[in-house]
């Protein structure tokens, strides 16, 4: 199995969030020959959704995902404000032609120890967003986050749990599989098979560093850590996943401090050698 | 459901590792009326195993576990040196009358990305240690560690995975359930039921802090974090677990810096109010 060529890579804008705004990311992806981009909502709104959509299209880039909807537990109970914001996220995903809207579902409500309660809120919220998303043809991708984020970011923490939710909610919803979040899971191969092509909506890469110095912002460039990225890519592609390989690296002390064109160059090299 | 009284608590010596040697831990447990102790092998060897066994017995303390055997991947392949060391750990557990020998099984071999290979090494090693442990009547407790330790400490990361191993290896082996490692698991209630009384060999408590600033040494005192400790205790006790509640807190910036008698006092208060 060979590596991933530049035109099969997508840049998640968080990877160079300290260096480039969205316009620079679009230009950078085009200049370096990447196949796609995955913007975050904040930078998308900064540029303006319509303007961004046009620039992305003009640059010939695919949109591997919009990051992110979700966070259903932000206000304790599920509120109209949270649901409305997710509806706007769906609209934005539609406007930029994103392959999916990626959902970071939210952790425990503030002051709560009730993770089962949080999970119920999340599923209720996902169901309502999904109803709307179906009506406008946007696919919803739940991103199970690493268990170390269960309290403060996402109480959906395994692909198995994700697919249980998808089973209950029906068509139009699947998973964003990020190697950083799932690589440790003894059940991951089996669950990727269970997901199947229709529910494998995104594939994100970075690496787990030894040692990891921060729970959020010490993710590694592909090849610098311990994840068998190519093995996991092989697993999703064996099920028919044919989307882009999205590079999403939070790295406060390393990649966020480097020249963004250098980062892009390394991403392309590592796409070939380590993905 | 009421809290845990002092005589149902056990002190894992790592909780005051910066303040007290094993002799002081034994005296401190007796002075504060704790029911038991769980020494680490390094401090046990420092005091001398026979001497420690006598002091623990004279103090009237139960030994909720010996920390720790395992680390089967330490030398890449399973070596005689690693197996011999685990055999010694079994002997030490027998000498001090420990309820179980707790196993932190080891992570990836150095330079390796093959987590399935690591898991195979671990299971082979556990099988061999178990053979010996059965012959001397020591119970082996696999401690599934939080997935954030999969690379560098333990590639057994869920109770489900632990019980799959136990199913294959047979009698004499079970699980040490530490709330810190398992609280996030959507499957934990079901797996505690699956474990049953015979395989629930230890129950460890501390808390998951928001925010967690270090992957290893920023664990919280019970009640200071987000884990529903009482709920999990209720789950294990519903299966018949009647062992001590072992307090194991790694806390470089807080509890390791306080006066150990103060730590003991807080442990007893939180046993009652938060466990």
UniProtKB/TrEMBL annotation, chains A, B:
A GO molecular-function annotation: isomerase activity
Domain Xylose isomerase-like TIM barrel as annotated: residue spans: 29-261
Lineage of producing organism: Bacteria, Pseudomonadati, Pseudomonadota, Alphaproteobacteria, Rhodobacterales
Name this protein carries in UniProt: Sugar phosphate isomerase/epimerase
Pfam families (alphabetical): AP_endonuc_2
Top-level taxon of origin: Bacteria
Keywords in alphabetical order: Isomerase
